Structures are given as structure tokens and as C-alpha cells.
Amino acid sequence: MSTYVNDDRETPRFQVNRAAMVDPEVFALERDKIFNHTWLYIGHETELKKKNDYKTRSVAGRPLIFARDAKGEVKVWINSCPHRGAMLCREDKGNARFLTCFYHGWSFSTAGEMVSMPGDESYGENFERPGLAAPAMVDSYRGFVFISFDPDIVDLSTYLAGAKEYLDLVCDQSEVGMEVLEGTHEYSVKANWKLLVENSIDGYHAVSTHQRYFEMVLAARGKLDPKALGDSRGIDLGNGHAVVAGAPATEGLFGRPLSEAGAAEREARFEHFAEIYGPGWVDRMKGNRNLIIFPNLVIVDLVMGVVVRKIDPITPDYMEVTAWELAPPEEGDELRKQRLDNFLTFWGPGGLASPDDVEALETCQVGFGSSRELVWSDMSRGMNKSVCNTTDELQMRTWWRRWNELVTGEQLPSEPKSPLDATFTAPRQDRASMASPTS
Ligand code: FES
Ligand SMILES: [Fe+2]
Q1: C-alpha span between 256 and 310 (Å, rounded)
Q2: Which pLDDT value is given to residue 221?
Q3: Which ligand 1 atom is nearest residue 81's CA?
Q4: CATH code for position 80
Q5: Beta carbons within 8 Å of 405's beta carbon, 6+ residues apart
Q6: C-alpha to C-alpha distances, 436 to 20, 222, 251, 431, nearest whole angstrom
Q7: Domain of residue 318, CATH code
Q8: CA spacing 20 to 30 A to 196: which of 60, 159, 322, 353?
Q9: Which of 171, 164, 259, 242 is nearest to 202 (CA)?
Q10: Residue that wins the pLDDT comparison between 253 and 107
């Protein structure tokens, strides 16, 4: 049995050792074995609208510059001057043709080349003028930009495995490309970062933790039959990625109901998409999904809004969270207004749900003060079933097995489950393949 995970197939039972949530040695191992060797999300291409736009970001403890250069290409630089270390960009965001270090004045282009250094003649001709340092790898999938500090890592597409399909279900909601909206949620939680990973894909907690939110929804709708929210599945997507996917809700959207005009626009948009992608794929789009891309990127698409959430471990008992809203730019004003209203009512530091989750996670961390006496947390729900849904914990076990593999080297087989039915597997069709040969 691994030190941190008890994956007992016989009982069956799955437990996680709480030492993994408090031990500084585990934290150091995670930095090394996980964050130095996976693809990590840095930002979305649409956050950099113009040439020479930049944002500063922190990924795995590294200060970074996420930028578009003068040619319009997305670049990622280490936000530290090659001279003696000062941060080159000290603002959250900006637009600059040159990144000039305020300490001694070395200056670089957004393409990373040195442009000038004061007193250049004191270095001699043979002195190599350094450019900006960069992470080993930068790549993107449909606008989502990832970096890796491991030059030997598999390519991003291979790494994303089954998660790509769920990114497609999000990205296909716009014909011109989904965009990150202005404004960012930034908050912190006094808890281990893995607790928020678990929470982000945990359907089991929703009704009890977010009681107040559901009371509000109920009041707005008059009725809400939980069964009418539709069928759901917890799915292992490979490489530690997992999703809880919901079929389209027969009661309409999760959250407050749309106005008539908003609902009509939404319906028209999906009808149009059905012509492009086929009805099976669009039914899946109309459902919801909580996706975890290993290790720390969460995408929650509850249809009323798409949250992109990046979870940053800072210490074993403290994390920082950044979240953005992704939306189709061509959406009408009415629908956009209601999307944002639903989004802000549920998520973020001022939402009705996120603070509940923060409270739950922080009390877990307090509880872990007795991790020597009460060693194991339980994550066994649905292990005895051949089909798992959103209130089971298959998705968390999937993530933890990958965590365990990277941290301890011990490989645990995935759980055998029944094949998924068409509601959860219908592929996207292109126009050509949809045209019948006889018509
Ligand atoms: S540290 Fe940047 S110019 Fe000296
Ligand atoms: Fe929650």
C-alpha cells in the first residue's frame, strides 16, 4: 500500500492519507515531481488582445510574463532580469514595446531580445548580451496556453488526452472563438491546494454546502426537481484528467432562469450549432461539465457561464486562486448580462457558492491538525458501481491516482467501468459528414 493512497479494490475502498495535505516534504515533492514535469496553464490567448500586450502571472512559484510580441505571437518569459534578478514587469498588465528593468535599465523587446543596456561599452565586444529567459515549453490548445518546465515532456495534445474533447465542448460554443472577459477573480484559501481540486469536481457536496444558493434558485424558479437536472457521469479522461459531465437539464439551465429574450437567443444559438456540429454533440454542449486538467486547471461549464480556474499551491496549508470567465464574443447583450449575473451570483469572492466552498476547505485543513490521530480521508463513493455519476468520487480517485504515480512512482490501474452511452460520447460532426449521400 502506498504511503498516501489506499486503493483497496476488494472492499472496495479508496483513502487518502491526510499527511499529503500538511507535510512540507510532500509539498516539496509535489513541486519537483508534479509541477516541474507537467503542462501548466498560464492564460488564454484572448487576454492579450493587441500586439505588445502583457500580463504578469505566477505559475508553480515562477514569476512569468505572458505576452504578445510585436509580431502578434504569444510568448512567455521569466519575469526576472538576466542581469541581477529584478522583476521586469511589476504591473499586473500593460502594453509595452520594450520591457525595461527599473534597477539598472537593461531593456528587452517583447520578443525577448536585448535592446539596450546603459553603459554598454563597459562590457566589451565578446560579452554575450543576454535575452530574456523562458520556460522550456510553451504550447496552446484552442486558445488555452500552457507551459512546462520540462523540455522532455510529451507534446501538449498527447498530454491533454481525453480532456481535449471537453475543451472542444466549451470552445465550440463560439464560432469566432471563446474569449476571456475583462476582470479577474483573485482569492486565497487557508487550505491545501488539493482540497480545491477535489471540491471543483465534487457533485456530492453541492446540495448540502450550497443550500442557500439552491434556496435562492428555488425561489426564482418556483420549483426545481433535482431529478430534472439530468443524468450525469464521472469520467476518467486519462493522465489524471477527469470530468463530471451532465446531460442537458430538462428543467433548463442551472441557476436563475433566463428572460424570455435570453432563452430565445440561447435556443437559436444552439439550433444553429446543431446544424454545424450535429445534434448529439450539441446536446452534450447544452449539458454541463466540471473538468480538471491535471494538476491544477479547472474548467467549470455550468452553461450559465464558463469559469477557468487556476489553483496555485503556496504553502502546504495555503493556496491562491485565479479565475476568469469565458464567453462567446458574439453573444447578445441580454444573454451576456444574464450570464454575468448568474456567474457572479454563484462564483467568486462575492458569490453565493465560492465562499461556502472556502469555508468547507478551511475547516478541513483545521481538521488535518489531527492527521496523526485521524489518518485517512475517504473517497470511495461509486467504487462499487460500474457507472459513476457526479455525486460519486471516481473523478477524484482518477486525479489522486495520477498524483500518487508522480509523487511515489507507484502506478495504480484505473477502475474498470461500463462503456459510456451515446449521451456522453456523441462525436462532433462536420458539415461534410452530415450531408447524406442521397440528398
Ligand atoms: S537587475 Fe535588471 S538591469 Fe540590473
Ligand atoms: Fe461548491
Answers
A1: 26
A2: 79
A3: 2
A4: 2.102.10.10
A5: 240, 411, 412
A6: 55, 44, 33, 10
A7: 3.90.380.10
A8: 159
A9: 242
A10: 107
Domain count, the chain: 2
CB atoms within 10 A of CB 266: 22
Residue of 302, 299, 296 lying closest to 210 (CA atoms): 302
Q: How far apart are the C-alpha atoms of 70 and 48, rounded to whole Å?
A: 12
- Measured by CA distance, the residue closest to atom 4 of ligand 1 is 104
**pLDDT above 90 coverage of the chain, percent:** 83
- pLDDT tens, 361-388? 999 999 999 999 999 999 999 999 999 9
- pTM above 0.85? yes
Binding-site residues, ligand 1, Cβ < 6 A: 81, 83-86, 101, 103-106
Expressed in angstroms and rounded, the spacing between residue 373 Cα and the centre of ligand 1 is: 51
Cα–ligand 2 centroid distance for 410 (angstroms): 31
Structure-block grid coordinates of residue 36: 516541474
Do 312 and 222 fall into the same domain?
Answer: yes
> Residues near 365 by Cβ (< 8 Å), separated by ≥ 6?
21, 22, 190, 191, 192, 195, 317
Quick check: 435 pLDDT over 60?
A: no
Closest C-alpha to ligand 1, atom 3? 104
Range(s) of the domain holding residue 196: 164-434
Would residue 78 be called left, alpha or beta, if left means φ above 0 and alpha means ψ between -120 and 50 degrees?
A: beta
Query: 34-43 burial by CB neighbour count: b if 16+ within 10 A, else e?
Result: bbeebbbbbb
Shared-domain flag, residues 133 and 172: no
Whole-number Å distance, alpha carbon 347 to ligand 2 midpoint, is 9
Same domain, 229 and 358: yes
| Residue 17 located in a structural domain | no
The set of cell numbers assigned to 314 is: 503556496
Nearest residue (CA) to ligand 1, atom 1? 84
